[in-house]
Amino acid sequence: MIAEIIPKIAGQFAEEEQGYHPRPSMAGPERCIRQMVYHALGIERRPFPGRALLVFDDGRWHEELSLDWLRKSAFQVNSEQMLINISFPGFGLSLIGHIDALLTDILGNDYLLEHKAINHFTFQRYWDGQLPLDYITQVCLYLRGLQAVNPELRRAILLIKNKNTAAYLEFLIEYDQSTDLALIIEMTDSSGEKKTLDAKIENICRDAFTKFQTVEDYCKKRTLPKRQYFIDDWHCDYCGWAAACWENYKEEFKALSEDVALSEEIETMARYYKELGAQKSDIEKEYKALSEKVREALKAVGAREGRAGEYILKLSLIEKKRIDPELLTDMEREKATVTSFYERLNVSAPKRKERKENG
User: Fold this and answer.
1) pLDDT digit string, tens, across residues 64-85
2) Which of 14, 170, 229, 264 has CB atoms 3.0–4.6 Å from 233's, for a disulfide?
3) What is the span of the domain harbouring residue 191?
4) What CATH number should be reported for the domain holding residue 42?
5) Do 203 and 143 share a domain, yes or no?
6) φ, ψ for residue 43 (rounded to 5)?
7) Closest CA to 119 of 48, 156, 167, 49
């Protein structure tokens, strides 16, 4: 009764789309620059669906909940949503940002606190070693702006909450304004386990300002940069300008060259790709055959669940539903059909006869 109403209400009360202006949250290398150019040119974007707006709203509440718990600790939370100005020598633009908060520990040390709330799968990728580059860039830009007022404020805590499990990841980051160097010192999870990272990112703020300058340059020329992602990438699935971006790609794809002599480096990658494909095929066949043997063994003893040493084996009956197109009229089939594209890579070797003739 209300499950479908709430997302619709969220869509009705959505705030009006803001015009483009450079800001720290969009400065990182993972943010698609082509998307930024569309935004800056004033191209109309597809409205956010109600569920997406609910996700954004959830993120703000997760931040407030985390800060509320911190206020109950020995840490002092202050300067919430303080506005800061960020500049970089040689660039005629400045960024305006609002920090989440400053944090002071019991020894009087100050840290910038930046809070993010994300899904479980992205959270796990970060714990497994992938750096949140966009968030780190945003943090360093904030530190640069803060250091213009307080040069001693060199460190930040990037606090990332898992929205599914309420677990936290904490990245300790230091930024040196004189060298424009980011040092990602360590990562800590909710259990207290630490991983020393000592990862360095050079020219982190300069690269951010260069990106914004590049967006301006494309806008002045009324041209678009190359696409940063493939047509079937998840980034494009969530982009409001995806329809405009890929509108004429079918014609673009047909215009791409054929029979091009490629480099030895690509030849090496192609050879390895073929080897991996052969291994994958063999493993998948073996995996399927073994699955059938295990299922037969369970049924032979009249079981759908059992224990084998340290393993618990369980058979589940999965019900699948699909639409039978034969039961639909031509008009119904056409209305329900959605066309999408993806790129398929095929790597093959010429037949030996062709090789001999060419030789």
Assistant:
1) 999 999 999 999 999 999 999 9
2) 229
3) 5-215
4) 3.90.320
5) yes
6) -70, 130
7) 167
